[in-house]
Amino acid sequence: MSKSVFENEIAKQVGSILEMDTAKILDCIEVPKNKDLADFALPVPRLNKFKPLGNPQEAIKKIQAAFVLNDTIKEITVAGTYLNFKVNHTLQIKAILDQIIAQKENYGKTTQGQGRNIIVEFSSPNIAKPFHAGHLRSTMVGNFMCNLYKATGYNPVAINYLGDWGKQYGVLAVGFAKYGSEEALVADPIKHLFDVYVKINKDIENESKPDEDPNEVKAETSTTTTTTTTTETPVTTEEKPKEETKKEKKKREFKSKEEGGKPKKPSATDEEARQYFKKMESGDKDALALWQRFRDLSIEKYKQIYQRLNIHFDVYSGESQMGGLMEKQYQILESKGLVKESKGAMIIELEKEGKVLVKKNDGTSLYITRDIAAAATRKEKYDFEKMYYCVASQQDLHFRQLFTILRDMGYAWAKDLTHINYGMVLGMSTRKGTVVFLEDILNKTKSKMLKIMKATPEKFSEIEDPEKVADIIGISAVVIQDFAARRIKDYEFNWNRMLSADGDTGVYLQYAHARLSSLERKSGATFNPEADLSLLVEPVAHKMATILGRYPEVIQKTLTELEATVLVTYLFELSHTVSQAHSILWIKGQEKPIADARYVLYWAAKQVLSSGLKILGLTPLDRM
């Protein structure tokens, strides 16, 4: 990333004094948190990793004595083992704003990716089920990553890898035969199919319940009675059973998978569903026709939601498309001696990640098997540099197993796969048979925002499409609440805080952008690229310009960490500073040269804020 003329001047002189490579010194120069102390700082001991300097204080004295102050660097001071530099603020402001004027909306963007392919798999809902709150984070994080990679010169390929295969579709087909309604399916396919799925699973659950053993109930009651006479805490029949260890749970879950997932008490409905899915895998035309209809209806509905969220996918793929591609992967697994038979099933024993079932004893495939085939197919088709899976942290083990298996299969590119995990959204938990639809969340935020907007009739009357604006603000509120912290952290979904125009919210960022957009309308100022920027002498003008100057660096840091919160935190810092400037750097009523210079500063802030919002996946608003 290119450095400023000031950093280059510091590095050039220090390099000459210490006889060191300028590029290495550039990498060590920092922007201090306390901008009152200095504009740039050099931690001298850090240079030791490139060249032994001995006593840092001696090196500092040597640099300070030989450093030549000029029109660029105005002051050099010492703070501990740091050298602090103050630069010519007039030149600094002009250099930053001139760069933004020249590059406009491309400021901060780079061509470093040189068009190389980056695969981002995200959202990936299960067909015939509602797009629920659980898909929210994957969808937003994946879209942000695609925008970020595009801004840095890569070619991101957005893949929606639908959960469109597996026994659950046998369950759904059996359920539809029992509870389905053609009329309800046409009216609201997703809702109806979900209702059917819940009902048929309830049937399976009821059929699978073991018969009660009266002796066990009696013994439990007896235990309760005797323990209440002791000094220990009474044990009741409602007490939670002792939790099984992770090892016990893993063993139980694997055994269940290996046996085809059979419940302890056989369920006729579950077995019927299993046989139906087997027909699907065998290519039964009638079974596949019904499945295809459910799939098409689901995708049509999902696309409506994605359009609302301003999200585009390059590929709608799915587990179902891996059917003919898995045999090759099975052959590689066998040729490498990675699989062994266990009760008719195929398993892999990994050293650290445990046993992995890759084919059931009835011959049907599993999620991980289809993921293996999908990864190999994508590498062959796209020759990607990196591939990311945006999936919740509950799937950490699955992806460790997947990446290890691919590595053991001899795929060198397995090292280029990354699981982008994230925490839970709290406050949106569901009971069995109920679900929070993402569409309902968006509708609720839109409704709440419309109500807030109508509270100021004068502003509301100026908005051309209030419904659309309210929807964009609502989506912004949801996205920024999610991106406020590092993605691995759980967070509480809070309606009131999220929709507030005060504090660090999506509403606040949109308001900051809209206010910048209104300056030209309200002040009568116009953009003049030839404005005399030396007239920007106020401290807040310098503060704002230096924040704008950090934007390219922030984009690089965001790319390195793949954390949206890095960019969000920066945009809040910029917006707060712009808010301070509004009360000091007036435009209306000022002499034209001053008004022109100040308007260029605000125009540059709008360019950067707009660019950042778009990378986050948001539509910047000019009125609200």
TrEMBL record:
<feature type="compositionally biased region" description="Basic and acidic residues">
    <location>
        <begin position="206"/>
        <end position="219"/>
    </location>
</feature>
<keyword id="KW-0547">Nucleotide-binding</keyword>
<dbReference type="InterPro" id="IPR036695">
    <property type="entry name" value="Arg-tRNA-synth_N_sf"/>
</dbReference>
<dbReference type="Pfam" id="PF03485">
    <property type="entry name" value="Arg_tRNA_synt_N"/>
</dbReference>
<feature type="domain" description="DALR anticodon binding">
    <location>
        <begin position="509"/>
        <end position="624"/>
    </location>
</feature>
<dbReference type="GO" id="GO:0006420">
    <property type="term" value="P:arginyl-tRNA aminoacylation"/>
</dbReference>
<keyword id="KW-0030">Aminoacyl-tRNA synthetase</keyword>
<protein>
    <recommendedName>
        <fullName>arginine--tRNA ligase</fullName>
        <ecNumber>6.1.1.19</ecNumber>
    </recommendedName>
</protein>
<dbReference type="InterPro" id="IPR035684">
    <property type="entry name" value="ArgRS_core"/>
</dbReference>
<feature type="compositionally biased region" description="Low complexity">
    <location>
        <begin position="220"/>
        <end position="236"/>
    </location>
</feature>
<feature type="compositionally biased region" description="Basic and acidic residues">
    <location>
        <begin position="255"/>
        <end position="274"/>
    </location>
</feature>
<dbReference type="InterPro" id="IPR001412">
    <property type="entry name" value="aa-tRNA-synth_I_CS"/>
</dbReference>
<keyword id="KW-0436">Ligase</keyword>
<dbReference type="InterPro" id="IPR001278">
    <property type="entry name" value="Arg-tRNA-ligase"/>
</dbReference>
<dbReference type="InterPro" id="IPR005148">
    <property type="entry name" value="Arg-tRNA-synth_N"/>
</dbReference>
<dbReference type="Pfam" id="PF05746">
    <property type="entry name" value="DALR_1"/>
</dbReference>
<comment type="similarity">
    <text>Belongs to the class-I aminoacyl-tRNA synthetase family.</text>
</comment>
<feature type="domain" description="Arginyl tRNA synthetase N-terminal">
    <location>
        <begin position="4"/>
        <end position="87"/>
    </location>
</feature>
<feature type="region of interest" description="Disordered">
    <location>
        <begin position="206"/>
        <end position="274"/>
    </location>
</feature>
<keyword id="KW-0648">Protein biosynthesis</keyword>
<keyword id="KW-0067">ATP-binding</keyword>
<dbReference type="InterPro" id="IPR009080">
    <property type="entry name" value="tRNAsynth_Ia_anticodon-bd"/>
</dbReference>
<dbReference type="Pfam" id="PF00750">
    <property type="entry name" value="tRNA-synt_1d"/>
</dbReference>
<dbReference type="InterPro" id="IPR008909">
    <property type="entry name" value="DALR_anticod-bd"/>
</dbReference>
<dbReference type="GO" id="GO:0005739">
    <property type="term" value="C:mitochondrion"/>
</dbReference>
<dbReference type="InterPro" id="IPR014729">
    <property type="entry name" value="Rossmann-like_a/b/a_fold"/>
</dbReference>
<feature type="compositionally biased region" description="Basic and acidic residues">
    <location>
        <begin position="237"/>
        <end position="247"/>
    </location>
</feature>
<dbReference type="GO" id="GO:0032543">
    <property type="term" value="P:mitochondrial translation"/>
</dbReference>
<dbReference type="GO" id="GO:0005524">
    <property type="term" value="F:ATP binding"/>
</dbReference>
<dbReference type="GO" id="GO:0004814">
    <property type="term" value="F:arginine-tRNA ligase activity"/>
</dbReference>
